[in-house]
Amino acid sequence: MEACAFEDTGKRLLSYFYSDSGSLATLKESSEKIILCNGLYDTKCESFDGDETVAIAETNVRHVKACMSINEQGRPTIIAGYRSSSVEILETSGWQNSSSHPAGKIQYHTCTSVPNGIVTVGGYVSGTGYLKNVYLFRNGQWSIVGQMQNYQRYATVIAYDKFFIVFGGWSNDSVERAEWDGNNVTSTQVINNHDDWIGDCYNPIVFETAPDQCKEFCTENFCYDV
């Protein structure tokens, strides 16, 4: 995005990437570098720094409709998917298995980094149904740390020190704010609802701008002062 407009950079990834089935995360040490894993057709992953894309180690299993975030050690961590409950962490030696997600083969969930861990929000598990649960992955262990008011699937979450905001995706037009004390969700509230047409927006794109910038993106339903 340049001057509040999206432009084609002309850069291309090595493999096709489908946002509804693949996973990606931005490395903490470089806001320009991302890790992407396909998941849909294979276990291939790559890194992209805005200029160059490089093939990296493949995951051990296919993580379809999973999510990825950065753990407390700064390592990309890919979480579950409809084919597997496994959690893998990208170490210098490649993707290494960690504790599986306690919900099982969870899909449609979203995740984000919080201080000293990763939270996953919502999702779907066959035989269980859609979830409101918030799970915390810290020091290689999982725990349930709260619930949202609405079922969340294909949502997007953005985190701050003391709260995070979940932007509803598929079949959910709510925007929920969850207060976070560092260990648990202490309260939640619905702060807005999108128009009906955006209720099926898979993995909505959320970005931050300086105050009063990019006003053409902003309407009553789409910009939030946090």
UniProtKB/TrEMBL annotation:
InterPro entries: Kelch-typ_b-propeller (IPR015915). This is Uncharacterized protein. It comes from Oikopleura dioica (Tunicate).
